[in-house]
C-alpha cells in the first residue's frame, strides 16, 4: 500500500472513537427519521455550542447541507454571492443553481476571502426586475484556499449583509480547522459574529458521513423539514449520523483531530518552503498547503503521494493534511520532493 497522500482530507478513514459510537448505537430498535435519543442528544449538544435559539438538522453530505440550507432562505429570483473559488461554485456540479434556482454571483478574491469592498458591483440594480436580487453572501470557513476568516472579518461581512437586507451563510466543511486556527469556540465565529445559516461539516475531520444544517437565528429554519424531505436527505436511520456527534463534541475529538491536521500542514509548509523551485502561494492557516512546483516533479510525486493540481497553468498544487497524517508521511514526501528537484535540475 502506498503512503498516505495529500489529495483530500476526505480520503482519511473514520476516527476509531466515532466508528465505535456507530457500533454502540447499533443496538435494538429506535424510532426512525430522527425521532430517537441519539439525534435528540446530538441536537442538544449543538445547541450548547451554538446557542439555545439555534436549530440543527442532519443531512448526509456537505453538498446537501449547502444546497438545502441556501434553498431555505432564498427564492428563485435571488442571487447568492460567493467567492469564485468557493465549493458551491467549483465543486458541486451546479447543484446550488439547480435546486435553489438562484444565480451564483461569483467574486474574484486573491485568497478565497470576500471583503465588503469587493461587493460594490452587486448592488447597482436593487429593485430592478430585469436582474436577480442579491439575498445571501456565502463564505467558506476555512476557505478553499486554506485561509481563515478572522472573527472581525466575519462580523464585518455580517454587518454589511444585514445592512443590505441580506443573510450570511457559512460553508463550514472545515470549520473545526478554522476554530483551532483562531483558538476560538464555534459560537464566537458563527452565532456571535452574525452568521445566519451554517453548514457544519465533520466528514473531513474524522466522521464517517453526516453534516448538519444549523439555523442560527429563530425562524429561519421553520420550513427546512419539508425542504429536507423533498431534497431526499431525510435519513431514516439518522441515529448513525447523530451518534458520531456525541463523542465528537464530548471528547473534543473535533479539536484534537483539527489541531493535528493543522500542525501537519504547518510542518509540511516548513519542510518544503526552503526547497529550490518551491513557492508557497497562500498563508497556511488551516490544513491546506498551496505551492508552485516545477511541472517535471509533479507526476512522479503523485504516483507515490497522490494530490491534486490547483492551477495547471501556474503549476500550482494543493496538498491537504488529515487527522491521521503522520510526521513520517511528511518526512517521506519532503525527502522525495527534494530528491526529484535535485535529480531533475
Please explain how this structure is put together:
- The chain has 345 residues and is of the alpha/beta class.
- The chain has two domains: 15-250, Aspartate Aminotransferase, domain 2 (3-Layer(aba) Sandwich); 258-343, Alpha-Beta Complex (Aspartate Aminotransferase, domain 1).
- It is built from twelve helices and eleven strands.
- The protein has helices at 16-25, 37-50, 62-72, 87-90, 95-100, 151-163, 175-182, 224-230, 239-250, 253-273, 298-304, 327-343; strands at 55-59, 78-83, 103-107, 133-140, 167-172, 197-200, 211-215, 279-280, 288-292, 308-311, 316-320.
- The strands form two sheets. Strands 1-7-6-5-4-2-3 form a seven-stranded mixed beta sheet, sandwiched between helices. A four-stranded antiparallel beta sheet has the order 8-9-11-10.
- A hairpin with a 4-residue loop joins strand 10 (308-311) and strand 11.
- Helix 1 crosses helix 9, helix 2 packs across helix 9 (239-250) and helix 10 runs parallel beside helix 12 (327-343).
- The chain is globular.
- The protein starts with 15 loop residues before the first helix and ends with a helix.
- The model has no long low-confidence stretch (mean pLDDT 96).
Amino acid at each position: 500500500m502506498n503512503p498516505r497522500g495529500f489529495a483530500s482530507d476526505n480520503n482519511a478513514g473514520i476516527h476509531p472513537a466515532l466508528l465505535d459510537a456507530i457500533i454502540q448505537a447499533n443496538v435494538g430498535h429506535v424510532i426512525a427519521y430522527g425521532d430517537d435519543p441519539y439525534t435528540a442528544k446530538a441536537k442538544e449538544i449543538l445547541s450548547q455550542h451554538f446557542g439555545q435559539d439555534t436549530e440543527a438538522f442532519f443531512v448526509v453530505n456537505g453538498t446537501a447541507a449547502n444546497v438545502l440550507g441556501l434553498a431555505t432562505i432564498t427564492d428563485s429570483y435571488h442571487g447568492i454571492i460567493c467567492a469564485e473559488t468557493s465549493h458551491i461554485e467549483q465543486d458541486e456540479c451546479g447543484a446550488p443553481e439547480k435546486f435553489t434556482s438562484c444565480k451564483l454571483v461569483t467574486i474574484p478574491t486573491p485568497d478565497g476571502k470576500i471583503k465588503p469592498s469587493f461587493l460594490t458591483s452587486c448592488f447597482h440594480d436593487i429593485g430592478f426586475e430585469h436582474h436577480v436580487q442579491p439575498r445571501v453572501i456565502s463564505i467558506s470557513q476555512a476557505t478553499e484556499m486554506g485561509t481563515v476568516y478572522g472573527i472581525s472579518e466575519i462580523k464585518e461581512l455580517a454587518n454589511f449583509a444585514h445592512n443590505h437586507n441580506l443573510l450570511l451563510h457559512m460553508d463550514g466543511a472545515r470549520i473545526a480547522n478554522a476554530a483551532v486556527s483562531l483558538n476560538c469556540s464555534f459560537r464566537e465565529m458563527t452565532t456571535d459574529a452574525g452568521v445566519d445559516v451554517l453548514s457544519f461539516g465533520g466528514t473531513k475531520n474524522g466522521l464517517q458521513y453526516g453534516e448538519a444544517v444549523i439555523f442560527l437565528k429563530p425562524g429561519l429554519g421553520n420550513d427546512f423539514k419539508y425542504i429536507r424531505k423533498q431534497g431526499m436527505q431525510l435519513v431514516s436511520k439518522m441515529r448513525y449520523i447523530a451518534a458520531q456527534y456525541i463523542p465528537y463534541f464530548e471528547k473534543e475529538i473535533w479539536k484534537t483531530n483539527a489541531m493535528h491536521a493543522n500542525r501537519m500542514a504547518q510542518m509540511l509548509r516548513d519542510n518544503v518552503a526552503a526547497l529550490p523551485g518551491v513557492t508557497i502561494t497562500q498563508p497556511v492557516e488551516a490544513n491546506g498547503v498551496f505551492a508552485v512546483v516545477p511541472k517535471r516533479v509533479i507526476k512522479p510525486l503523485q504516483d507515490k503521494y497522490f494530490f491534486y493540481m490547483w492551477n495547471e497553468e501556474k503549476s500550482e498544487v494543493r496538498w491537504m493534511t488529515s487527522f491521521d497524517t503522520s510526521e513520517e508521511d511528511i518526512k517521506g514526501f519532503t525527502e522525495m520532493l527534494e530528491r526529484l528537484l535535485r535529480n531533475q535540475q
